C-alpha cells in the first residue's frame, strides 16, 4: 500500500502562524521533505519535532523527488514543506506533487499561511478577482513586456520581488502604470514588517530612501472600471490576444466591437505597430 503525500503550509515568518493540524501531521509522518533542511530545522526544533529529513532544494529537486516518491511507493507517509508558506507556490515542490498524482499516490493539503493571500487581504483592493504572477522576468526588456501585457488587467495583481530588484521593478511599473495605486509590504509577519501605500510612483520614490532588505510583495490595483480606453489600449489588447494564439483578424474584430472602434483602422495600425 502506498503512503500519503501531505502538502503542509508552514509560517512565512512568525513561527506561531502554524496550524494544530500541521503540527500533528509533521509529528506523525515518516519523513519530511524540506526545501532546505537547515531552514526547516528552526521550525521543527521550535516545536520539538524530530523526523528524518530529505532536502529537495535547487538542482537536487528532480533527484530528490524520485527518491521521495520511492518512499511513498514503499508505504511511507511524507510531509512536503517549503522554507515559508505553501509548497509549489513560487517555491519548489511541484515535481513531487505531479509525480505523486500521476502514480496514484494520495495527496492531501494541510492549508495554512501563504504570503499571496495575506498581502491581498491587507491591500484594500478588490478581492473579487485577482491574478498572482509570482516573480517577474529578471531582464528589463522582458519584465517591461510582461507588465505592458498586464496594463489593461481589471483584476488585482500580486507579485513577489527580491530586494535587489525591487527598485528596478517599481521604476518599470511607474513608467507603465503611472498613477495606478499599489500596496507594497516587506518582511510580511516578521519583526521588521513595513508597509507602503500610494501610487506606484509615490512608493517607488519612498523606497529610494528606505532600507532595502527582506522579501517584498507588490499588490497592484487592477485597471479602474470605467476608465476611458484609448486606441493604444486596444492595440495592446490585440497584441496580447495574438500572443495567446488568436489570429490577427479575429483579435481585431473582437477588440473593435468591444471598444466601438473602426475595425479597418485597428487592423491597419496593428500591422504597422503604430
Topology of helices and strands:
Layout: E1 4-8, H1 20-28, E2 31-34, H2 37-46, E3 53-55, H3 61-73, E4 78-81, H4 94-102, E5 106-110, H5 115-123, E6 130-135, H6 140-150, E7 156-161, H7 166-177, E8 181-186, E9 194-199, H8 200-207, E10 216-220, H9 231-243, H10 248-259, H11 263-272
Parallel strand pairs: 1-4, 1-5, 2-3, 2-4, 6-7
Antiparallel strand pairs: 7-10, 8-9, 8-10
Total number of helical segments? 11
List low-confidence stretches: none
Q: What proportion of the residues form beta strands (DSSP E)?
A: 15-25%
Overall CATH architecture of the largest domain: 3-Layer(aba) Sandwich
Q: How many separate structural domains?
A: 3
- Order of SSEs, N→C? EHEHEHEHEHEHEHEEHEHHH
Could you tell me how far the N terminus lies from the C terminus, measured between alpha carbons in angstroms? 63 Å
Structural class: alpha/beta
Number of strands: 10
Radius of gyration: 22 Å
Average pLDDT taken over every residue: 90
Assign the CATH superfamily of the largest domain: Tetrapyrrole methylase, N-terminal domain
Q: Overall 3D geometry?
A: globular
CATH class of the largest domain: Alpha Beta
Largest sheet: 5 strands, parallel
> What share of the residues lie within helices?
40-55%
CATH fold-level label of the largest domain: Cobalt-precorrin-4 Transmethylase, domain 1
Strand order of the largest sheet: 3-2-4-1-5
Amino acid at each position: 500500500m502506498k503512503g500519503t503525500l501531505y502538502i503542509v503550509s508552514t509560517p512565512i515568518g512568525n513561527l506561531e502562524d502554524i496550524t494544530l493540524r500541521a503540527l500533528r501531521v509533521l509529528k506523525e509522518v515518516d519523513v519530511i521533505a524540506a526545501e532546505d533542511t537547515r531552514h526547516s530545522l528552526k521550525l521543527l526544533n521550535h516545536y520539538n519535532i524530530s523526523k528524518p529529513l530529505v532536502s529537495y532544494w535547487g538542482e537536487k529537486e528532480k533527484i530528490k523527488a524520485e527518491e521521495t516518491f520511492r518512499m511513498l511507493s514503499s508505504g511511507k507517509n511524507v510531509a512536503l514543506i517549503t522554507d515559508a508558506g505553501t509548497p509549489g507556490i513560487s517555491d519548489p515542490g511541484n515535481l513531487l506533487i505531479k509525480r505523486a498524482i500521476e502514480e496514484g499516490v494520495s495527496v492531501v493539503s494541510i492549508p495554512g499561511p501563504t504570503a499571496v493571500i495575506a498581502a491581498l487581504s491587507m491591500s484594500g483592493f478588490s478581492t473579487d478577482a485577482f491574478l498572482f504572477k509570482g516573480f517577474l522576468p529578471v531582464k528589463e526588456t522582458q519584465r517591461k513586456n510582461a507588465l505592458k501585457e498586464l496594463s489593461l488587467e481589471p483584476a488585482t495583481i500580486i507579485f513577489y520581488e527580491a530586494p535587489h530588484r525591487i527598485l528596478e521593478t517599481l521604476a518599470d511599473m511607474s513608467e507603465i502604470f503611472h498613477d495606478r495605486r499599489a500596496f507594497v509590504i516587506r518582511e510580511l509577519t516578521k519583526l521588521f514588517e513595513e508597509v507602503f501605500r500610494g501610487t506606484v510612483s509615490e512608493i517607488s520614490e519612498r523606497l529610494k530612501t528606505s532600507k532595502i532588505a527582506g522579501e517584498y510583495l507588490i499588490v497592484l490595483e487592477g485597471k479602474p472600471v470605467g476608465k476611458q480606453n484609448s486606441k493604444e489600449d486596444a492595440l495592446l489588447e490585440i497584441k496580447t490576444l495574438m500572443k495567446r494564439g488568436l489570429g490577427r483578424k479575429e483579435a481585431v474584430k473582437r477588440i473593435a466591437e468591444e471598444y466601438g472602434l473602426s475595425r479597418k483602422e485597428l487592423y491597419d495600425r496593428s500591422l504597422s505597430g503604430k
